């Protein structure tokens, strides 16, 4: 039993050159109405002919009554496609020398404009800087004038206080004399400092000139060196420069550390708890040192027998060293004694002769008298 499918009232779409039977085909794609724009009424039955805007008797709900030409829409081999809108206008087809020259001129104009802007900004900055310097100088002058006026005001206030307290004129004159002497002394000290500074500056200048001359001499000596020695000299100079830079960095680190130490010490001086912590830490360090020493001594300790042998050996070595030192001292002393003995005997003989000389002279005189 085979079921016969009822023929559809919508057949194949007609070709571009063919004709459609009334009520037998669907509208072509070019004139198909939008599906979501207008709702299809339910009372319209396919196959009814005679309505405007329909092709081949197929109703087209929502389509305008004006006829539409299918040929107005472009067609490709793959099917229909929409119209492509233009993205940009026509460009130069040949990028020749004139094109690049024009492009270069435009860039040069942009650079010139930017340079002029920068020059204008620089001029404005210089003008503002000059004005700022003038204002700064004027501010310094005004500050000095204010300081002078403050000093005068302090003097007048002090004078008014003296007058209000019924101070005697002699006392005021005495205070004035003391202050004037102190001021003169400080002025003399300032003059001496200024003179000393000028002398030091002259000495520094002379030393710099001397250093400059020595460097010129050193440069001439280096230029007269052979190539190998020059290379070695330049290598050592570069190493020296690097070491100086490292020394500068280390010096800065040392200064920073010293500053931190001073800050910590100042902070420590205001905190009893931190002082106690430091004291306990120092005590702990001392105890750890003692512990390490005791551990080392414990490790170095031997058995009693080994200690006795070690002690005997030490005593033996000490005795040998003492004997050697005695020999070293006795031999020179003996030699010196042997050399001194004749002189001592001669000295004794001379002393004896000088003691008995008057007696001998007297005896000789007595003998002559008889």
Automatic annotation (TrEMBL):
<dbReference type="GO" id="GO:0005929">
    <property type="term" value="C:cilium"/>
</dbReference>
<feature type="coiled-coil region">
    <location>
        <begin position="190"/>
        <end position="274"/>
    </location>
</feature>
<protein>
    <submittedName>
        <fullName>Intraflagellar transport 74</fullName>
    </submittedName>
</protein>
<dbReference type="GO" id="GO:0035735">
    <property type="term" value="P:intraciliary transport involved in cilium assembly"/>
</dbReference>
<feature type="compositionally biased region" description="Low complexity">
    <location>
        <begin position="1"/>
        <end position="19"/>
    </location>
</feature>
<dbReference type="InterPro" id="IPR029602">
    <property type="entry name" value="IFT74"/>
</dbReference>
<feature type="region of interest" description="Disordered">
    <location>
        <begin position="1"/>
        <end position="35"/>
    </location>
</feature>
<feature type="coiled-coil region">
    <location>
        <begin position="108"/>
        <end position="166"/>
    </location>
</feature>
<dbReference type="GO" id="GO:0048487">
    <property type="term" value="F:beta-tubulin binding"/>
</dbReference>
<dbReference type="GO" id="GO:0030992">
    <property type="term" value="C:intraciliary transport particle B"/>
</dbReference>
<keyword id="KW-0175">Coiled coil</keyword>
